Amino acid sequence: MKLLLLGTSGYHPTERRHTACLMIPEAGIVLDAGTGFFRVREHVATTTLDILLTHTHLDHVVGLTFMLSTKWQKPIEQITVHGQAAKLAAVREHLLDEQMFPAPLTCQWRPLEDGPLTINGVRVSHFPVVHPGGCVGYRLDWPDGRSLAYVTDTTAAKSAAYVQQIRGVDVLVHECNFRDGQEEWAEKTGHSSTTPVAEVAAEAGVKRLVLTHLDSLDDSDDPVNIAAARRIFSDVEIGYDGMTIEF
User: Fold this and answer.
1) In this predicted model, what pLDDT tens digit does every residue of 111-161 receive, in sequence order?
2) What predicted TM-score, i.e. pTM, was given to this entire model?
3) Which terminus of the chain has a smaller tally of CB atoms within 10 A, N or C?
4) pLDDT tens digits, residue range 183-220?
């Protein structure tokens, strides 16, 4: 199974990173729809597409307006957008209002309900994380035992409730918008810094950690000080646009 990182920046795109978007082509699943969503059409491998939104801050949803070109160029029969009911309503009433967007999108809108859902054989669970305006994380489990978790836009802490939801996954993709020393900004904006994210991975017993939703003001190769994370959790790497993760 392959996970593609199509957007790994937070807040706004940079010369080397677009904002949050991940894709599992074989399952037809996309996680968040930031500016990196325009790359989805290059990797469509199914006749359905299920988009799982964590929340509706613009760096995670503006790519929904790119769906017209995706459907036009690829034989997609059905697109379903999943998210919390209030978040889906906000997208439809504001982002896709005719004053903002010229044409209606022919897709299904499916509010998240209690309990998991199944998408192309993948068990998808969601859980709340703390972030201004509300946000959810996702855990995906395959019948053969493979697993993946995606946690973005929250302030990491090894005592956080969501740690139990991601325990033991093969791959944890977790936001790391700030490096150590910027904890005050992380707390103020509802984001994470390097050491607490590594501590979450260690506490949850995950096998591999990939850092994403990186600081848009630091376009360097190492915006998080990866050495600090590796002192706590060794199997960690910085995500980048175009990265393929096999699990």
Assistant:
1) 999 999 999 999 999 999 999 999 999 999 999 999 999 999 999 999 999
2) 0.97
3) C
4) 999 999 999 999 999 999 999 999 999 999 999 999 99
Q: Which of 75, 74, 62, 73 is nearest to 36 (CA)?
A: 62
The answer to whether 120 and 28 are in contact (CB under 8 A) is yes
148 phi and psi angles, rounded to 5 deg: -145, 145
Tokens at residue 139, please? 């855990």
**Scanning the structure block, which residue is given the tokens 């037809």?**
28
State in words which class domain 2-246 has: alpha beta
Domain residue spans in the chain?
2-246
CB neighbour list of residue 6: distance below 8 Å, 6 or more residues apart = 18, 21, 22, 23, 36, 37, 39, 40, 43, 241, 242
* Whole-angstrom distance, CA of residue 64 vs CA of residue 242: 19
Measured CA to CA, the distance from residue 133 to residue 29 in angstroms comes to 24
